[in-house]
From TrEMBL:
This is 10879_t:CDS:1. GO terms for biological process: cell surface receptor signaling pathway. It comes from Diversispora eburnea. It comes from the Eukaryota. SMART domains: SEL1 (SM00671). Residues 228-500 form the Protein kinase domain. PROSITE patterns: PROTEIN_KINASE_DOM.
Length: 707
């Protein structure tokens, strides 16, 4: 027995010395690199998950298992030599990569609102999850990878995650409103439109000359009228620079901005950001921006007028009744959810940057490019102010990276903003600035030690005490030091909405909302923590059987565009046989057009539909058009519209243009809907669809500013 073990060991050493194992592994090296990269990408995506976190966690259990299996495979190459010689093992590995890519895309789609709409229009989240996990479990078995996740306990975890997240998402979408859900009870197309505009501004393409045309609306100075009756607060802000005017019978605030002294690139950036701000008007909880104008010898930004000033000014002047505070908090959360759904971060959320309009409706304001242009950006007081609401990861400003073995800068994320929102809630509840008497160093030391502001309550009726307990739970959940376990905005919204339903009953509407200052005993002491000095968490064969190598699908697609059709067809055929959805689509294209193969439009159509049902936008478009272009099949208008709508909602510009024309002109006997038609045409134009740009130009519609 000992001699056999010694002989086996010597054999392995001999193989390594002769380089035999290396030759066997060679075809797998790029595959291992590819799956390692995808796993890294998934981890990065997971860090920004906003919705359906339990579902994403269940998938991350599998990603972790895959990562561990790959590390083991790389470490034990000699022991796995027999597998490396197996052709079917090689094919399974390719399928493994594609499944990991599908997991990444599923997490992206299910965790962001502007992507989530595809689940509303097509297969359910559960169907997608079940399909992914089943395929993952099968391929892990084929690769002989250990699966700690393939057991009854994990299945119970998965079931709970699905039921819990789907229930929460359903409730959230029913309640959120605020411009996120349109009149048809579907996720507003505007979210995707704004996200596309923001992407163009953040990553400008030198070939897109229309970027410079993304500008805010211009308002004639003659359209800004003086109020008939003047008020004491007609001028506000530092040096009383914010002026009240009347625009189209609405009270507006004219706020100075310096556009003349900036370099052209910066001016274009400001214009673009303001144009996006104008688009956000569909949210009732974001300050309405009308456009740019000129008055009182100054370029100005024109916003809706806030009768009560900022939320900070309001709580400094009055005590706000408890039932109204929770409604204000819910509305701010609604506005923040709208921003995040458009991939926009505020960066400085606090009561001072919430404007209160008629009806005591809160509006998020003071975005980066809508602040006073003449305000100094390096004012240390401003830095200290921001610190009071800042997330601990941003206070640290850098974190140690295991991959680079260096400290790296921490970017501002949705998680940071949720922490700041928790601080805003504390500020609103207790009507005072956090850590008011502390300097920046003391605040950092306190927060990074895991401490937070005090939550203590004064005397209050039993119903208010229950409300306070609910608010405290929400605030603490937003204050978690670890961003990974910090509450999601969705969870905060649902909990705030529950408090509103339970405590903001109709009889409360007749109660006084604004009480004289210091009427309420908010915390039993009316002092901040800063007043208390920071008190207070087998036999081996040397014969190498060469396996025919399958090039990556991306390389096959590149070969197609280079007109290397034989190479591309071979690639698409191989990957389609491995049930790769995108490869099925490309195989369909070649069969439809008769490239490198005899035309077979019936089979092509079947492949288009398979890929279309797996959410490949190009396949959805091709399947829709195949219904029109195949004379052997009776045209099915309903199915055509179903699949072209799927393609449009999956961001295919040709589908967006075609669907826009269908609605705009009432083609295919579809009832006209000019508004929806123009929205799809604008999306197509934002995706650089030339015909859409041409149609909008003829209609006199500016893609960036018209609604």
């Amino acid at each position: 027995m000992g001699n056999q073990a010694t002989e086996g060991s010597n054999l392995n050493i001999a193989k390594i010395t002769l380089g035999v194992v290396g030759e066997v592994v060679k075809p797998f090296v790029p595959l291992i690199d590819a799956v390692t990269l995808v796993i890294e990408e998934i981890i990065k995506v997971y860090e920004t998950v906003q919705y359906n976190k339990k579902i994403c966690n269940s998938l991350m259990d599998r990603v972790d298992a895959a990562g561990t299996a790959i590390k083991t495979l790389k470490r034990r190459q000699t022991e796995n030599e027999q597998n490396f010689r197996n052709k079917e093992y090689y094919k399974s590995f390719i399928r493994f990569i594609e499944i990991m890519k599908r997991i990444k895309n599923f997490i992206i789609d299910v965790s962001t609102l502007n992507k989530y709409q595809k689940f509303v229009h097509s297969s359910s989240v559960k169907d997608g999850f079940d399909s992914l996990t089943k395929d993952f479990d099968v391929v892990m078995t084929e690769l002989h990878f250990t699966m700690a996740v393939a057991n009854e306990e994990q299945r119970m975890i998965d079931q709970f995650a699905l039921e819990s997240d789907i229930a929460d998402m359903t409730k959230f979408l029913e309640k959120i409103g605020g411009g996120i859900i349109d009149q048809n009870q579907k996720i507003n197309i505007l979210l995707h439109e704004v996200s596309l505009m923001k992407e163009k501004l953040d990553h400008p393409d030198s070939s897109d000359n229309n970027i410079k045309n993304i500008k805010a609306d211009e308002i004639k100075s003659t359209d800004l009228m003086d109020p008939i009756v003047s008020k004491e607060k007609d001028r506000r802000g530092n040096n009383r620079q914010v002026i009240r005017k009347i625009y189209k019978n609405f009270e507006v605030a004219c706020k100075p901005i310096d556009l003349q002294n900036n370099d052209p690139k910066e001016t274009a950036k400001i214009q673009g950001q303001l144009a996006i701000l104008g688009k956000l008007r569909e949210s009732p909880n974001i300050i309405r921006f009308y456009g740019l104008s000129y008055t009182e010898n100054s370029d100005v930004m024109v916003f809706e007028w806030a009768d009560y000033g900022s939320l900070k000014e309001l709580y400094c002047q009055y005590d706000i009744a408890w039932h109204r505070k929770v409604k204000i908090a819910l509305d701010i959360c609604r506005g923040l959810a709208f921003l995040h759904s458009c991939d926009i971060l505020h960066h400085d959320i606090r009561c001072e940057h919430i404007m209160m309009v008629t009806g005591l409706i809160p509006k998020i304001a003071e975005f980066k490019y809508s602040r006073m242009a003449r305000s100094p950006t390096t004012d240390m007081k401003g830095v200290t102010d921001i610190t009071r609401w800042m997330a601990p990861e941003k206070l640290r400003d850098s974190t140690y990276s295991d991959s680079t073995k260096k400290h790296v800068h921490v970017p501002y994320t949705f998680k940071c903003e949720i922490f700041s929102f928790g601080m805003l809630l504390w500020e609103l509840v207790f009507e005072k600035i956090p850590y008011e008497k502390w300097n920046i160093l003391k605040i950092k030391e306190h927060v990074l030690a895991g401490n937070r502001e005090k939550i203590t309550w004064g005397k209050a009726p039993p119903d208010v005490q229950k409300l306070q307990k609910g608010l405290a739970k929400i605030i603490v959940s937003a204050w978690e030091d670890d961003p990974a376990i910090r509450a999601s905005l969705q969870n905060i919204f649902i909990n705030l909405d529950h408090l509103v339903d339970e405590y903001c009953t109709p009889d409360k509407e007749t109660d006084v909302i604004l009480l004289p200052d210091k009427t309420l005993d908010l915390d039993g002491s009316a002092v901040s923590i800063s007043d208390e000095s920071g008190l207070d968490l087998p036999d081996m064969d040397f014969n190498i059987d060469k396996i025919p190598q399958i090039i990556p699908l991306e390389e096959g697609i590149a070969a197609h565009w280079k007109k290397e059709h034989a190479k591309a067809w071979k690639c698409f055929l191989a990957h389609a046989d491995l049930k790769n959805t995108t490869a099925k689509y490309w195989k369909g294209i070649y069969l439809w057009e008769g490239i490198e193969v005899e035309k077979d439009r019936k089979q092509a159509c079947e492949l288009f539909k398979e890929a279309a049902d797996d959410e490949i936008a190009e396949a959805q478009l091709s399947y829709a058009f195949s219904l029109v272009n195949d004379p052997t099949v009776e045209f099915d208008r309903e199915t055509f519209l179903k699949y072209i709508t799927k393609a449009a909602n999956n961001n295919n510009s040709t589908a967006q243009f075609s669907l826009g024309e269908v609605y705009l002109y009432g083609k295919l006997n579809q009832k006209k809907d000019e508004k929806l038609g123009k929205k799809y045409l604008r999306l197509a134009a934002l995706n650089n669809q030339p015909k859409a740009k041409e149609v909008l130009q003829k209609l006199g519609i500016n893609v960036y500013t018209d609604n």
